[in-house]
Amino acid sequence: MINIAIIGGTGVYDPRILSNIGEESVDTPFGGVKFLVGEYANKKIAFIPRHGSKHSIPPHLINYRANIWAMKHIGVRNILATTAVGSLNLAMKPGHFVVVDQFLDFTKGRVSSFYEGGQRGVVHVDVTDPYCPTLRQVVVTAAAAADISIHASGVYVCTEGPRFETPAEIRMFAKLGGDLVGMTNVPEVVLAREAEMCYSTVSMVTNFAAGISSQPLTHGEVLDTMRENSEKIKRLIMKTIEL
Ligand code: HPA
């Protein structure tokens, strides 16, 4: 019985918080998924690096359906995902963590549902609470216990990528109520809802979004901030698993 799956975003590839690590794979209707299984705090944990173990899969080509299907298939009920994000909100600064509670979907070319008619039928899933309130609360409590400051809510704008945004897009997203911008949370969170799993994301702000920062944005900047804060995100994940 797997207690929780971690989907590690940019900068979170290191499974070494786990012991007795083994590789497993599951065939799904959408393709095969390889993942790690290990133990921490007497719990069995699955770990998927979202972009592949060497960051070789760009956001728009991630096999979101296969990943979520595989986790459901092995009995996972709770998923804690991490995401690197740019910030539109001056109170959410590089290095800060945010437990997002809503999203705005600006993706374009992704299959975002398990339900495409035919045998599986047509389903309109409720996303009033897209992110699991119970797991979100556990993350907020874990952050307090680990002495890590965290924003307990925030609106995640998901773009198609893989390019970063224009300053005009960022101004529009800010007017629409977005706080953070990233490229991966949709459809991941939606598929987890369809699969009736409890899914929460911890977003790590790696940069101010285009136009808010006066500097051109680079992937190197994103990776540098992730690296500087990797110890903190590891501690937060460990504390969340412990609780
Ligand atoms: N935009 C989109 N995705 C991101 C960003 C950003 O500024 N930073 C990290 N992921």
Defining traits:
single chain, 243 residues, alpha/beta, eleven-stranded mixed β-sheet, 29% strand, globular, binds hypoxanthine
* Number of helices, counting only DSSP H or I runs of 4 residues or more: 6
Strand content: 25-35%
Query: Which ligands does the model contain, each kind named once?
Result: hypoxanthine
Measure the end-to-end span.
Answer: 17 Å
E-strand count: 11
The helical percent reads 25-40%
Shape: globular
Low-pLDDT segments, ≥5 res: none
The main pleated sheet reads as: 11 strands, mixed
State the order of secondary-structure elements, H for helix, E for strand: EEEEHEEEHEEHEHEHH
The secondary structure category is alpha/beta
Describe this structure in words.
The model has no long low-confidence stretch (mean pLDDT 93). The chain has six helices and eleven strands. 27% of the residues lie in helices and 29% in strands. α1 (64-73) packs parallel to α4. With 243 residues, the protein is an alpha/beta fold. The longest helix has 13 residues, at 133-145. Hypoxanthine (HPA) binds next to β5, β10 and β11.
In brief, what are we looking at here?
27% of the residues lie in helices and 29% in strands. It contains six helices and eleven strands.
SSE layout and pairing:
Blueprint: E1 4-8, E2 19-28, E3 31-40, E4 43-49, H1 64-73, E5 78-87, E6 97-99, E7 102-106, H2 133-145, E8 150-151, E9 155-159, H3 167-175, E10 180-182, H4 185-194, E11 198-208, H5 219-228, H6 230-242
Parallel strand pairs: 1-4, 1-5, 5-11, 6-8, 7-9, 9-10
Antiparallel strand pairs: 2-3, 3-4, 5-10, 6-11
Helix pairs in contact: 1-4, 2-6
Hypoxanthine binds next to strand 5, strand 10 and strand 11.
